[in-house]
Model the fold of this input.
Amino acid sequence: MQSVRIADVAKCEGQKVTLQGWLYNKRSSKKLHFLQVRDGSAIIQAIASVSDVGEELFAKLGELTQETSLRVQGTVVKDERSPLGFELHLNDMHVVSESPDYPITKKAHGDAFLMDHRHLWLRSKRQHVILRIRHTIIKAIRDYLDENDFVLVDSPIFTPNACEGTSTLFDTDYFGQKAYLTQSGQLYQEAAALAFGKSYCFGPTFRAEKSKTRRHLTEFWMVEPEVAYMELEGLLNFIEDTLCVIVERVLNKHESELENVLERDLTFLRKVQKPFIRLSYDDAVTQIKALQNECDDPEVKELLDIEWGMDFGGRHETELTKCYDRPILVHGFPTAIKAFYMKRDPNRPEVSCSVDCLAPEGYGEIVGGGQREDRLDVVEASIAEHDLPQDAFEWFLDLRRYGSVPHAGFGLGVERTVAWICGLHHVRETIPFARTMDRLGP
Ligand code: 4AD
Ligand code: MG
Done:
């Protein structure tokens, strides 16, 4: 008998089928066993009664432990009450491999324990939903860019040049030469955009983040589109469009899982529509100062301290997003706090043509981007000001020597986007195997 995927049992109503999977859970009474069987595609309840299966098999079923791998045979029967709409009336079962003392039980486990058992934790319902939504988000981004004629141009992972400052570089010994793991594929996308007009890369990026926050990983995934002849205003629209598409596609596919498994309140996600809030850095600082004045909690009040010229901390972003029901595009950060490649506002060189997109409900920055400095002399000076070795950037300067044009792009962090959409407090559950300052395993 051919085996079917549990997600496909609807096609086999009334038929006898074989399912191959694992025992997710079980409860029993004297004459009945209710086995929750999962196969990765879905979970089905298989019911076995003494009268159908006989004493011997019934006893064997009673001894099955969590996560035993097994093949079950039975008839697919419609059942309106089950989430799947079907259940299996079991008539045979074979154990493939035993699973004594499975470590993750029904009782509550701490975060560290679960992260230590991540390789098994991935089997649970909640982790399944999160990682499936991650997949949908990644696919939505790729599809959207592909539909809009972007060319995928992979940026290298080993690189001789720092992109996002020198304080978070992981270095490696590259045959006696120092090479870094990439912090961002952007610089190479600038070459790609000037070659193809519109390009993107989608890959892992690495930062030696010494901060243990709910938003920081040392290895995370970023999509980085780059467009030639695009300026800041066009970039803001592009970020808006991309985020609207992502949220719409996730809601279309996962609304019920978000609500029922993750208990996500969808009110704010449904409001992810254009236009987003647009706020200059200047106005954002004024607003944060006002929030600080009104704040009663001395601890928060201190964290909200800000002067023009300072970068936002997590708390600044969190409190700012709580003032609005939609994502915020904060633009025009001080040049001094942004990376060397940012375009300076020609009328106000102390301000850069940069943007961060802050996700609502306290989530904060999920996208960073900007227009790139396209004037050779200004980039050269900036490389020197940032104390970067010019020879590693000669190729990058060539892009300003040979047919330089205005261009812009952004980087969207996948994990922070998953955390926001799924309503998770911490990014650790948004990636299959998280890497943080204090975690390199499993
Ligand atoms: O703002 P960032 O540093 O921007 C860049 O890297 C640009 N070169 C991107 C570009 O314009 N092509 O990073 C972009 C995004 C952040 O908004 C955040 O979502 C994510 O990457 N990110 C992190 N996510 C998890 N852990 C970290 N340590 C992260 N650092 C950045
Ligand atoms: Mg940033």
